[in-house]
Amino acid sequence: MVLHYEDNNLTAAREDVPRPAFRRMCQDITHGHERSTGIPVRGCVSVERERVYRLPRDFVEFQDALVMAGGGIFVEGAGVLELAETDAPPLEPAEVERVRSRTARSRVDRAEEGRPPAGPRRFGWLSASAAPYRPGNKHRDDEEWPHLIAMIKARAAGRSWRGIAGDLNRRGVATARGGRWSEQGVKGSVANPAWWGGRILNGALVKDPATGEPVIGRWDHADEARDGVGYETWVAIMDGVRAARFRRGVDRPGEISPGAAAPPRTYLFSGVLRCGRLNDLGEICRSRLCGNRATGRNAKYGDYYRCGDPNCKGVGRRVAAVDEFLEGLVLDHLDEHFAAGRPEPVEWRGEGKLAGLRQARHDVEASITAGAASWGDVGGLLLRLGRNIESLEGERREHSESRRKDLRGWRREKWGGMAVSEKRDVIARVLRSVLVLPVPEGASDKAPFDPDLLRPSWCRDAPSASRAFRGGRRPVPCPGPE
Ligand SMILES: [Zn+2]
To answer: I need a labelling partner for 378 at 20 to 30 A (CA). Which of 23, 231, 358, 463 fits?
Structure first.
């Protein structure tokens, strides 16, 4: 065995789970060697084929790779499979499909019949139990219920998600999983129509097809008379949520909403800045700071970065001052570490192969046109060539993208011409984080910006290692302000 490809803990049965090692293996088989070492790769050995592919899509990709390699071999257990010659997936993809639709089907059934949804326990309801038998999410948890109702009422009264989460944590109320409340957690509980008996499936409220009324589930839910909140309360809350999304201009990316203000700004150091204040629990907060647009009477101070963690009183800093200072640091760092050297001059390994395939496709098409071959004879071949060409073209695009991101040979003049997203890419590749310390007690609000309160931590990756800047970490997108 010369090379080992392993997608740890990744299922091979789901379309939406990317399998990087599987892809790399297919590419290496296609090219006949491993990318960085050049070790020849002529096939694949696996204890069972299900470890390699389960989806028809993966089967086709794997088979194409073996064929392109010119008779690559696949050994399963002790036997050689003639995969390159067969044209049908040897296992039933229908089985995968069947399991998937069975799960989806039962979800729909449960919702339409108003049965309590399966899944993890929701805050406010009791979990499932075997003896005595009790389904989960059906019966009220009398201890949590008043807190859930209080959350709903607070939101309906205009309190922020952050404020509600902070209150819960201060009162020592734990989430369903025993943790601390976050803004998202509170929003998740209050926005879920389960508390009044409703259910959302595929983005829409489940309604009775005959009456158009929401289906009320057969689980304990709020009672307008007893709890003082109900369906109408929920509708009002959700209208507020939609209005806030609309104002921020984040509703439906791509859809232009006429009433929306300017698109949300992206700030250079959002997500890189971390909060350095001790939070309510006595820990350094370390939450990511997000940029906020200054509005109203604060507009004259300019946009600001702010910690939005519900357990923290927060730190804030003006964007203009922070950006100017940190931009200078980043540029100096780039000059010092990346100006020397030049980008890795590695050419993509597949140029010859791609040219060959294009020529082959051209020849086959020409022979059809000339009447030397019929479509029936070579149609399958053309389809395969098309797929091969497409996958190699994709690989070449990825290659040039990763070269573009190589910082070696850096020139400061580039910076001015870069878009904010490109600058953020560069920043994320050199700057791990910047801790923002709170302004000391007693310092005036008007005190000038103090760069000593920013503590940068740089990425340690040596620029000489070719792997250092592949797959650089991206800053996690910040949720918008609300
Ligand atoms: Zn904080």
So the answer is: 23
